[in-house]
Amino acid sequence: MAKKFKCNICGQTFEADSMPDKCPICMADSSHIEEVVEAGEGAPKKKKGLDTSSNVYTIVYAVVMVVIVAFLLAFVSSALKPMQDANVLRDTKNQILTSLNIEGLKGEAVDQKYAEVIVDTLDCNGNEFYQANVDGQTKWVLPVKGRGLWGGLWGYISVDEDKLHVYGTYFSHESETAGLGARINERWFQQQFNGKPIFDAEGNIALTVVKAGAAALETEVDGVTGATLTSKGVAGMVTEGLGIYKDFLAVMPLAFDGPICSCDAEGQNCTCPDGACPCVCNCCQQPAVEEAEAEIVEQAN
Q1: What angle do CA 99, 100, 101 make, to 5 degrees?
Q2: Which of 179, 209, 227, 251 has the fewest Cβ atoms within 10 Å of its own Cβ atom?
């Protein structure tokens, strides 16, 4: 639809579809031309409703969307938390079972086996540990924590009933290097600890990790090749972690280099050579050990 325009230089009125660049009569430029509005037409009407092209609309829309998304995320997180907590607890149970050389379980089988194997939760100097029954034999599971190259380390060390040798281990990490330090959670590394003595002849905690290929003593385990700092972290975790439970571990007698007491096939009727006693062998010390263990369990409960 053609519009009317007026040139302020020559005063002439003319029609055009849009604002012309020049007056077609006097050739004055568009700065001197104005649109003529007929009486009754008035100014162009404003659009009703929100102006979706304005900055205010954009900001308000963004804020509303952020609030809605945050609410939905909080709701989903809250709804899933019980399931997440259950999964974390089940994973912890599985790690404890792995330290007892019980592997390959998933889902509810983990919960069932854990309830079957773990018979008690005890305390040593404010540190929780577990009593287990594996094929009729008592085992003790000791949680340990440490620091690796890039983050935290943790694990579980299970020991035999006599508390002198390792039965099994499980180790994991927060953020060690893949293919290097992260290999501490592989079973080939963990199974090196199986059967290792915890103490040296002097009664000190000696179980440790050394540089790969350098293990020479019975209490030493080879570290991971190319992961020296992580291996040192595991060594510290093992030595210091077991040290936390030393009061509990020290209930049983340590290795004795002197004459060995003689017992019958059932471990009864012990006869101790002169100078070898009192109470230096398992059969002689068993009554005292059982009494001390009962006392610790009673205190823990």
Answers
A1: 90
A2: 179
Percentage helix, strand, coil, to 5, in the chain?
A: 35, 25, 40
- Count the Cβ atoms, other than its own, within 10 Å of residue 131: 18
Percent of the chain with pLDDT over 90: 54
Helices 55-99 and 108-117: angle between axes, nearest 10 degrees: 40
Question: Pairing between strand 118-124 and 33-35?
Answer: unpaired
Q: Which range among 43-47, 51-55, 79-83, 152-156 has the greatest average pLDDT?
A: 152-156
Rounded distance, CA 271 to CA 177, Å? 56
**276-281: average pLDDT:** 40
Task: Report how far apart, in Å, the C-alpha atoms of 108 and of each of 83, 89, 105, 113, 115 are.
Answer: 13, 12, 8, 9, 11
User: Which pTM value belongs to this model?
Assistant: 0.63
46 φ, ψ to 5°?
-80, 150
CB-based contacts of 230: which residues, under 8 Å, 6+ apart? Answer: 148, 149, 153, 173, 176, 177, 180, 181, 184, 223, 224
Q: pLDDT category, 54, cuts 50, 70, 90?
A: confident
* Amino acid letter for position 27: M
Q: Report the C-alpha gap between 165 and 139 in whole angstroms.
A: 10
* Contacting residues for 154 by C-beta, under 8 A, at least 6 apart: 143, 144, 145, 146, 171, 172, 173, 237
Cα-based distances in Å from 88 to 85, 124, 143: 5, 24, 16
Cα 247 → chain centroid: 28
